[in-house]
Design brief:
4-stranded parallel beta sheet, single chain, disordered C terminus, 19 strands, Ubiquitin-like (UB roll), Alpha-Beta Plaits, Rossmann fold, 5-stranded mixed beta sheet, 3 domains, about 575 residues, alpha/beta
Length: about 575
């Protein structure tokens, strides 16, 4: 048993244990100090100097880099600490593009927040010269980079490197000319960015933001000649409520349906239906590969950031990817083909919008492989954040809405479909169906809890497929995926199925979700919300969804059929060394 260790914060005795730094001890005690560069899931950097505290006998210290020690006497808001923080804010603002009212992050900017909290009205330092302003980079289909709003906190650099092992962003130049930029100053759309959006998720200002396409969607909604249908991913329902004062993980799907109709969408469907469809195809594909022994392990293909990473960094291994499209890109062609038939809508007047937790989905829908007859099946992707802004701009009181159901038949889904939003959920859903497809026997215990978890970024689970040993590897972040790939290349891999999500914890922590400085706790709460919905749904296996069964009977024939491959499967491209012009 470890002896109790305590220190003092503003005269209050506070107990601590394994907290990595003084800042975490302060927060655990219900207090806080401001910070720009610190994020719990990233290494401490100590760049911004906002989290300084005064320690008796030690003077001014950065709380995010200092380990806690027994007996320390810490003071959070002394004359010195407040003066330092105000000076830091003034220096940052003097070098900042202060067009706050038109900034994408207006009202959700930490620099703006702290400037207000610390009463910054006058700035003693001159603004930077106009000739020093740099062009805004909107070359990416997913993100916008404005270097004039960067405060050099380095959070984006660390997120790209530590989560994805990719180092797309880095520091360049020295002194007052220091900038954060892609390699050689190239536009973001011309480097190997996988569009995951984790850089924007950790950015405290408007230097990296989601490419907002809500105006385009509003134009379609207000066009009387258009029929605009929408689908929403599972992770969005357990995060959107945070933008309206609800708790993380609270399932708002009924409120979302109502809000989307009030906004003006004509038909509201659910990507969970597409997830059930994905499981039908992917489970069948997996069993075929197990039988033939070819192209194992099978890699899941739901995450577009992961797919692009493999195409770019390991094109020799794309044959391991499942040929299944993602749930979004499975449901969209079904809607394009059948909504005109079921709802008497002309194809040329049909617009398909997807609400996603993921900025990389904006990239995915623009891939040439997702076009048919010269048009994309998914016309627009908006993120959870963008939908929240649309709801607000429409004057909708989200919390007071009466919950509504989806439209049929593409709104019914199972518990297997809803857990796609959490790391491990795709593999768990696939095993539920693959087991029954392979054995012909019911899987009585569908809760495969070894596959779950948002904090452990890599885990292997051994399962018994009625005498056949099956090992599933679940990883989140591309850094962990790279380790799994190296195991395969070195002949050390013992797994037959590899599930990869680029974002830590899965889609619940996607780059398009509402921002949080305490993402470790919140992503777990969001995942719990999905598993609770799974538990409460009457059907928890994708192949038992009656609307899915009907779709195969009337349209797709059977999993893996020629029709299914034509509509629901795709191919991949060698993007190595620029061999393929990026979208």
């Amino acid at each position: 048993m470890t002896d109790k260790k305590t220190l003092f914060i503003d005269g209050k005795e506070v107990e601590f244990s394994d907290e990595p730094n003084l800042l975490e001890v302060i927060r655990k005690a219900g207090m806080n100090v401001p910070t720009f560069c610190y994020r719990p899931d990233l290494t401490s950097f100590g760049a911004c100097r906002m989290c300084v505290v005064e320690i008796e006998g030690r003077g001014i210290q950065s709380s995010c880099t200092m380990p806690p020690e027994a007996g320390l006497k810490v003071h959070l808001n002394t004359e010195k600490t407040r003066r330092i923080r105000k000076t830091v804010l003034e220096l940052l603002l003097a070098n900042h593009d202060k067009k706050c009212l038109t900034c994408e992050r207006n009202g959700n900017c930490e620099l703006q927040q702290y400037a207000e909290e610390y009463g910054i009205k006058d700035i003693r330092f001159p603004d930077k010269d106009l000739e020093d302003y740099l062009p805004v980079d909107d070359s990416s289909p997913s993100l916008v980079r404005d270097p004039n709003k960067c405060i050099l906190c380095g959070a984006c650099v660390r997120a790209c490197s530590e989560f994805q092992g990719h180092a797309v962003l880095g520091f360049a130049n020295r002194g007052s000319k220091t900038v954060v930029q892609p390699m050689n100053g190239r536009p973001l759309g011309q480097v190997d960015c996988v569009n995951c959006g984790q850089c924007a998720a950790v950015c405290p200002t408007g230097a990296l933001t989601i490419k907002n396409e809500t105006d385009l969607v509003w134009d379609e909604i207000t066009n009387p000649e258009k029929t605009v249908v929408v689908q929403m991913a599972p992770a969005t329902r357990v995060a959107l409520g945070e933008m309206f004062g609800l708790e993380p993980g609270e399932n708002t799907i009924g409120l979302m349906n109502a809000a989307l109709r009030k906004i003006g969408f004509n038909l509201v469907f659910d990507t969970n239906f597409g997830a059930d469809l994905t499981i039908m195809e992917e489970a069948s594909e997996f069993l075929e590969r197990l039988k033939s022994g070819k192209n194992l392990p099978l890699f899941t293909s739901c995450c577009p950031a992961w797919v692009k990473y493999l195409e770019t960094e390991h094109p020799d291994m794309v044959n391991h990817l499942s040929t299944c499209k993602s749930p979004m890109s499975m449901l969209s062609p079904v809607l394009v083909d059948l909504v005109p038939k079921y709802f008497n809508v002309a194809r040329e007047n049909l617009v398909v919008v997807a609400v996603m937790p993921c900025t990389a989905k904006k990239y995915e829908c623009k891939r040439p492989e997702m076009y048919r007859n010269g048009r994309p099946d998914t016309d627009y992707v908006i993120t959870t954040q963008e939908l929240g802004k649309m709801i607000r701009s429409a004057g909708i009181d989200f919390k007071s809405l009466t919950p509504e159901d989806h439209d049929s038949p593409f709104g019914e889904y199972t518990g297997a479909g809803t857990i796609f939003g959490a790391s491990g959920g795709v593999a768990e859903a696939a095993v539920r169906t693959a087991y029954e497809f392979a054995t012909g026997e019911p899987l009585n215990d569908v809760d495969i809890k070894q596959m779950r978890g948002t904090s452990n970024r890599s885990r292997s689970i051994e399962l018994d497929l009625k005498g056949t040993k099956l090992v599933v590897r679940v990883v989140s972040t591309l850094r962990e995926a790279e380790k799994a790939i190296q195991e395969i290349k070195e002949g050390k891999a013992d797994f037959q199925l590899l599930e990869v999500m680029a974002c830590p914890g899965g889609c619940v922590n996607g780059g398009g979700q509402p921002r949080s400085c305490d993402d470790s706790k919140i992503k777990a709460e969001r995942a719990d919300g999905l598993y609770k919905e799974d538990e409460n749904l009457p059907i928890r296996k994708s192949h038992l969804n009656p609307s899915i069964q009907k779709l195969y009977q009337e349209y797709l024939e059977h999993p893996g059929s020629h029709k299914s491959h034509e509509i629901l499967h795709t191919t991949y491209t060698n993007r190595f060394a620029g061999s393929y012009k990026d979208v």
